[in-house]
Design brief:
Keywords: Golgi apparatus, Membrane, Transmembrane, Transmembrane helix. The protein is mainly alpha-helical. It has 6 helices and 3 strands. Strand 1 and strand 2 form a beta hairpin.
Length: 182
């Protein structure tokens, strides 16, 4: 037998205890990360998109609902990484412009070298590894979709890989020195 409540009994939580525990968790995050809210949102939508993809079928038999929810979460993740966490966590920024001839021009910006050295190393590590691990997870899910010959779900994987690859390529090129100092 487990140690949980029995016979319909409940465990009463003191709101002060919950507040104290939450305060300790936030304090631990602040000790490790200078920007814990940015770190949270940087990882939150990656995990949420994978979770929606994996367990969406349990909540709805409709592929369309799972598609819309997962793609929306992927879009939010792309936007947050490109426009928020890249600037705050690693001091980099990229964008793409179309010139008059219809050609694509990638633009890169970076903080100056002194400012880059002052960034939190834990946040930078989390930023880069979450990009790479997320791509690996989606590749694995794509292999599973191919093995199961589930082409509908392969479409979601392709969108996930395109969005993740765009951010990974943009930030990698930016980090490698293709940038303009701002």
């Amino acid at each position: 037998m487990g140690g949980g409540p029995r016979n319909g009994s409940c465990i009463a939580y003191n709101p002060d205890d919950v507040e104290e525990i939450l305060g300790k968790v936030l304090k631990m995050a602040e000790d490790k990360y200078v920007n814990p809210i940015t770190v949270f949102f940087h990882t939150c939508f990656k995990v949420a998109a994978v979770a929606a993809y994996l367990i969406g079928g349990f909540f709805s038999a409709s592929y369309v609902i799972n598609f819309v929810v997962t793609i929306t979460l992927l879009g939010i993740d792309f936007w947050i990484v490109k426009n928020v966490s890249g600037r705050i966590l690693v001091g980099l920024r990229w964008w793409n412009e179309i010139n008059e001839k219809g050609g694509s021009i990638w633009r890169f910006e970076s903080l100056d070298q002194q400012s880059l050295q002052q960034l939190n190393k834990n946040e930078a590590w989390l930023f880069w590894w979450s990009l790479y691990i997320n791509a690996g997870v989606w590749i694995a899910l794509g292999i599973v979709a191919l093995i199961k010959f589930n082409l509908d779900y392969m479409l979601i994987v392709i969108v996930a890989l395109v969005l993740n690859s765009a951010n990974t390529a943009g930030y990698t090129k930016c980090q490698k020195g293709y940038h303009i100092f701002c």
